[in-house]
Amino acid sequence: MSIPEYYGSGCYPMGPGYYGSASQPWRSGASSGPPREIGGRPIWQTAQQSLPRPSKLDKPLRAISVGPSMLRGGAEQWLAYLTRFLDPRRLQVVRAVVTVPEYVDPALVAELPIPIEIGQAEAIRRAAQECDVLLCWGLAVDELLGDCRAKLCVYVAHGDGDWTRDLLARSSRSIDHVVAVSKRVQQRVCNGYPTSVIHNGVDSSRLGRTSPRKVIREAHGFRDDDFVLGYLGRFSGEKQVDLIIRAVAQLPPNFKAMFVGWGFDREMLVNLAEKLIPGRYAFTAADSYLGDYYSAMDAFCLVSNQEGFALALLEAMMCGRPVVATAVGAVPEIIEDRVNGVVVAQDPRSIADAAQLLQRHPAWARGLAAEAKSFAEEHGHAVQMARQYEDLLESLWLERNSSAA
Questions:
Q1: Taking the complete model, does pTM exceed 0.90, yes or no?
Q2: Which of 73, 220, 334, 384 has the fewest CB neighbours in a 10 Å radius?
Q3: What secondary structure, in 3-state letters, does 177-214 show?
Q4: How far apart are CA 296 and CA 397, in angstroms?
Q5: Is 32 helix (H, G, I), strand (E, B) or coil?
Q6: Which CATH architecture has domain 204-379?
Q7: What are the residue boundaries of the structural domains of the chain, listed by start?
């Protein structure tokens, strides 16, 4: 048997190809745990519900995450937040298996509190035998596991599009339960599967700041009287970042754009911005002190055509930025139009109209931002998400073992 290739936090080798730390949602049915929704709307966890709770088990559950990549995308950041805030007395993610070596960011790996293994079917089958819970996302699990069965296999559905639906269909023999990161994901891709909704949360420590807003804006070429539409995240087709550029092109010269992120579409977007809004945009990248960049924006834009639960949306809300968003993923569960954000159509004119509305009514824009921040502070912290995963996986484990007995 070949030696597994691992990468992990820290810098002390623990064997050939191994680096890092050695350690460190309920099934549908009336008795499966507390209700997740009232009147068709999900119950959001509150700050009071983030306190640690005693375990019903005599030892913590050991989980292994399995996914295609370890880049700075939303799913990977979800895993980073989850592992950081889990109560190790109840649930421990002991490692992550990544199937595509080219999709591993060593800098992100160094930040994780768990080791990373690069492997394919053999690694995933070994993981299924070694853990209590196989926590999967972004893969067709059936063909990787074959005849091997995990003690408990939970699939986390991070998207509301055909890609996620297809992967679930190709995992149906192996999975016991699905976690949808929003109600929309549950409704669009999880039909036919026992599913619980657990909303994502963010680690607000990433939102620290190093400089005043004015300094950050000046460093990126923006003046005090500019109105800056911002985006932070991956540059890829479904994010429709080009719509922001096209919206700014329809607005007066003092409307500008700031793009913070990475991705295969970056060069295309830079070329489009140079063509349509020369001298009115800035592209940059960041993975820490994100508050610097959110503070430099006058409005944050999320104009995707599909989403699961965009972490950047919660981050912008926590930073007190007015939000302009399309009604995708968790947006309808978070944003109430013209109360704590502005919901727009997937076209540049709609985005431009929203930007002008915010620019012309600054007091109203501050009110939207205050409402958004209040919501995010109450419901959007990763520790609340972690408590829900602990509750769910413990409940599923107890139910599975009770049925077996």
A1: no
A2: 220
A3: EEEECCHHHHHHHCCCCCEEECCCCECHHHHCCCCCHH
A4: 46
A5: coil
A6: 3-Layer(aba) Sandwich (3.40)
A7: 5-52+60-201+381-404, 204-379
